[in-house]
Design brief:
This protein is an alpha+beta fold and 232 residues long. It has helices at residues 2-26, 213-226, and strands spanning 37-48, 62-73, 78-87, 90-92, 96-114, 119-136, 153-172, 175-188, 192-210. β2 and β3 (78-87) form a beta hairpin. The two termini are 57 Å apart.
């Protein structure tokens, strides 16, 4: 009987140890991927009709130099972008000469990610600040621009626009190539809403993986807060 009792107690101990081990294994927390953010710096070229309401001639687009800065988190389906384009001088002869134009934008991208081939398709919406200047001759003024601009003088026009468009980018490691198509809508002659500009841009961008700004700020403030307390 004593031997049977010892065998029984040994069996219970063995089972309890085995159960405790399996129970600990089921409670092991799963490792989660850390949240990251991408900061992208890019450059390229852009082609634009430059103030479509006045550039009525076909095949008269301006070529511009384009820079972009993007920021987005890996766990979010959107990101922010800041873009600037400076266009080379063109002539919209005989009405406009020595035309200069530039555009600064702040956009939001709604992203669809493809995983088999790392690429993104994204919708673009935002605002832009546009500058158009040139020498207005008044010749062949079919749009009656003389009612707005003085003849034979250098004039400029600045306007806010609302951007809408579509973009695509393809990745190779931290480098990506991108192309975007955008339309800018603004006010013509104070009250008339019109498409002011159509722009196609493309280039390359380098992305730096970093800690999200929100998480980094939380760590900083948490550290400064703990600095003023003594552990007792």
């Amino acid at each position: 009987m004593k031997r049977c009792g010892l065998y029984f107690i040994s069996l219970l101990l063995f089972c309890s140890i085995g159960f405790s081990q399996t129970k600990q294994e089921t409670k092991t927390p799963e490792t989660k991927k850390p949240k990251t953010a991408d900061l992208g710096i890019g450059a390229g070229l852009a082609g634009s009709s430059v103030f479509l309401a006045q550039n009525v001639k076909e095949k008269n687009s301006a070529l511009g130099y384009y820079g972009t800065l993007t920021y987005g988190r890996s766990d979010k389906p959107y990101r922010a972008s800041f873009e600037y384009t400076h266009y080379r001088n063109i002539n919209i002869a005989p009405t406009w000469l020595n035309v200069k134009a530039s555009s600064a934008e702040a956009n939001l991208h709604a992203i669809w990610r493809f995983h088999k081939v790392k690429s993104y398709l994204f919708l673009i919406s935002g605002v832009s600040y546009n500058v158009f200047s040139g020498y207005f001759t008044g010749k062949n003024d079919f749009l009656n621009l003389a009612s707005e601009f003085p003849l034979e003088q250098s004039v400029s026009k600045k306007w806010w626009g609302f951007n809408a468009g579509l973009g695509y980018e393809l990745y190779y490691k931290n480098l990506c190539g991108f192309i975007t198509y955008k339309m800018r809508v603004g006010m013509v002659k104070g009250s008339e809403l019109n498409i002011m500009d159509v722009c196609i841009s493309g280039g390359v961008r380098y992305n730096v993986t970093m800690t999200p700004i929100g998480i980094a700020l939380k760590k900083i403030f948490r550290g400064t807060r703990n600095r003023y307390y003594l552990n007792t």
